[in-house]
Amino acid sequence: EDPVKGQAVAGLSERVAESAEQVMKYLFLGNKNRTQESTGANEVSSRSHAVFQVTLEKHGKNENSQDEVQTGKLSLIDLAGSERAANTNNKGMRMIEGANINRSLLA
What we know:
By secondary structure, the chain is an alpha+beta fold. It is built from three helices and four strands; from the N terminus they run αββββαα. It has helices at residues 20-32, 85-88, 93-104, and strands at residues 36-37, 45-46, 50-61, 67-78. The strands form two sheets. A two-stranded antiparallel ribbon has the order 1-2. Strands 3-4 form a two-stranded antiparallel sheet. The longest helix is centred in the first third of the chain and has 13 residues, at 20-32. The protein starts with 19 loop residues before the first helix and ends with a helix.
């Protein structure tokens, strides 16, 4: 845990965007790096969790002409598919993967 930023996850990256177009570019890039596989329940099932967090800063002056920064944060979270093993007909590695995904949702 970072004393300034709060909870931290190993392997995450942070980028600075100057426009909405750059934000969307980073969103698509992150989504492209996700793992997806076919299961018996879904043709395309995400096999990894994703967190996309946008922090906005507005710089200006307050009524006393002092510098002021207002901050807002938006978190978008997509959890990996957690289909029931009985519904997927998964076997072997895919079944172990599904169990690990389900276990990770309990943390």
